[in-house]
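Thread: quick sanity check before group meeting

JM: Hey all, I'm pulling together slides for Thursday and realized we never actually wrote out the predicted structure for the chain we discussed last week. Dropping the sequence here so it's in one place. If anyone has concerns about the input, flag it before I start.
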Amino acid sequence: MTISVHTDVSVTAQAWQQAFPDCEEFVFEVVSRVFAEDPPFMPVGAKVEEVEIAVLLADDDTLRQLNGSWRGIDQPTNVLSFPAARGMQIAGYPLFLGDIALGFETVAREAGEQNKHLAQHAAHLIVHGTLHLLGCDHHTNTDAVIMEAHEIRILAALNIPNPYED
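JM (edit): ok, ran it. Output follows.
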């Protein structure tokens, strides 16, 4: 089954636009790859042909505020995911899976510290966030191994090396 993917990208930090002049296409390509898996990743029991994800490309101050409001942690982070409530699909519209937010300064700093290309690190975090919207998690070692395997496979399809290898 082919799933049509819609991404709604909001860029509120100019640094993202400078690093990725075509942010919207970059995000769309990465998110679409998650749904190109066979079988495609979908919430358990979901039978949909179209999905939508909103992605916010922001600065660290915005991510710090979101992290503080939603997780009680007053510091910036690289990526946050906000899954939508399940069972909220409206006939004739894509299934809205939720929101992902990335903080530029943290993502860029991490990429530098890890000797990774910014685009590859950002793609990894977009895949990671998308998998969270689909119910994947890493609260246990078993869950982390499963989620990382999905990430590695999806990133390989985008010609991005395993982000967990040195």
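AS: nice. The longest strand covers residues 50-58. The chain has a mean pLDDT of 91.
JM: adding both to the slides.
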